[in-house]
Task: structure prediction
Amino acid sequence: MLRVRLLPRFGAAAMALVLAVAGSAPVMAKTRVRALATYQVVTGEPVTAPPGDGRQSFVRCPPGTVVLGGGESNTVLLPTGAELTSSNPDIYNNGWITSFHNSSQLIPVTLRTHAVCGSGITGHEFKLLQDQLVPRGRTRKDFSLGCPAGSLTLGGGSDGPQGLRLLESHPGGSNDWQTTVFNISLTSDLRTTLFTVCGSGVNRSLQLSDTVRVAKGGRASTSVTCPAGSKVLSGGGDSAPRGSNLITDTYPSSDGTTWTVYVKNIVDEDSFMRVRAFCGS
Result:
């Protein structure tokens, strides 16, 4: 068990407030332009990693649509060994890519990648922050990447080799996407690239789930639902303290109404998690 003592992300006094008001779902950074023309959640074929091995999974958006966000789901009803390594748009093939490692020594893990695809997006483009160093020695590093002025952040993520673990990947509060990446290696420096999906032509809002306690060494999950008349564009989970939970699943529902995140606690204390999602219409 990794023993890391981290200061609470929101501060000790603020944490009580977070738990007290977490049932409300504030709407932020809302910009009215025009309706999202078409919308679809596409799910890829299952990919299985044997015990102690890693795999990559991919799904492509249909012709006439562009990728907005994405994620993955695995055998979430079991205490599997799935650990998310990367989750990011495929900027060359208009889809979504995820990588994962099966830390179990006993059972295989099967994963499916999901992409949120749509049309009616003006100025759709990707922004990259390339080859960012994550030092050796079980080091965490936080990143944030936004979109140009006049453009909305619609989704995002990060890539990297099997020695990395994705602890957080979610919408920020200032038109940005935030990630926390963990280098599990004691001997090798590793690098990650951050991505945002940018565009306009949609009405976008930020929705927050309730805050959930994650017991030391335990697992937890929760979901957030988009307002009536809107669909989820992208989503992810944040943690308090930041980087205290490892993502095992982060994905949209097939009908695009919710985003769900599963995590496991990897620090020597209780932690908290919640889901953040961009919803659009």
Summary: The chain has one domain: 12-280. The two ends are 43 Å apart (CA to CA). The first strand starts at residue 38 and ends at 43.
